[in-house]
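Summarise this fold before class:
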Amino acid sequence: MNQIKTTLITSGLLATALFMSTSVHANSSQLVAPCATAESTKNGISLLSTECPVGNGLWANMKPKHENSDFWLQCGVYRKGVSSKNLARIQLRVSEKVSVKLTGKGFQRCLVGPYKAYENAVGDMTALRKNRIFKDSFIREVKLSDVVAIEPTVQTTVKPAATAVVAPAVIAKPESTVVDPAPQVEAVAEPVVVAILPVAVKEEPIEEKAVHSTDKLEVRRQAVINGNTYLVPFIGGDTESTYMEHDQAWIRENFASATKICQSLDMSLVSTEQWKTLRDSKRMESESWPLQLPYWGENEQGMFMDGFGTKLKGAALLNVVCVK
C-alpha cells in the first residue's frame, strides 16, 4: 500500500511538471527567438539552439554588469540529462520554462528562463536553492547588445504524432554530473494521477555522496612561474560539483576537499602572494584557465581575479589550484 501511495505521489509530481513545462506564456525576452528550436530531449525538455547565448555567471553577491540584459537561471550541468524527477522538482519552484543546451563536450546545461527582470530570476533562484540538489544554482547575465536579432524558426505547437519529427540520432546522450539519489520513475500512463496535488508532497531526503574515492586525477592546466609550479586538477567520475567553462568540465570543491586534493599531489593551496604572482603573469587568460569562479587559497581564503583574497565559508564550492 505504501508503495502504491509513493508511486501515485511521484506520478502527480511528474504530471504536474509536464503540464507546466508545456504551458506557454508570453515571454518578451529578446533571447526567445535566437534560442528556440523544434527539438526536445527524450523526456520532453526543450532543447535550445547551439547559437543560444547563455551569458556569464553572476557569482556570490555580484549584480548585473550591464544596463540592458536578460537572464538565465542555471540549474546544473548533466551528463545523462535532467531526469524526469528532477524536472518535476525544478518546475514546482520556478516561474519560467526549463530548457537544456548541449555543450561542446556532450553535456547538457540546465537553464530556466529567459528572464527580463533580474528580480524575478533571483526569486526563482532563492526558491530553487531550498532543495539542496540545486543549492549551487546561479544566475547568468546576457548582454542584449551582443545578441543578434533573428526571427524564430519554430512553431509554438508541435503535434506528438506528426511525421516530421527530428530524428533521434541528433539527440545527444551525455552522462549526468548530478546524481539523482531517488529511484528512477517510469512514465505515467493514466492521466487520472493529475488529481494528486504536488503541494502535499514532502520531498525525500537526499543522501550525501563521497565525491572522490578512487576517481582518476588529471592535470588540466599547469604553469611554472618564479620557481613555483601551479596546476589545476580534475577528478573524473560523477560529481554534482562539476561545471562547464571553455567547453570543458572543471571541478568545484569545498575548502576541505580542495586541501585534500592538493595534499594528495604533495602540493598546497596558494598563498595570497603566490596567487597575485599567478594573476600578474596573465597565464590564466592566455591559456584559458577557468575564470568564472574564485579559487581556494590557504586559510579559507577565496582568491578573486583582482589578485586579492577574502575569507569565505569553507563550504563554498570554488575552483582548485595547487602550488609547489
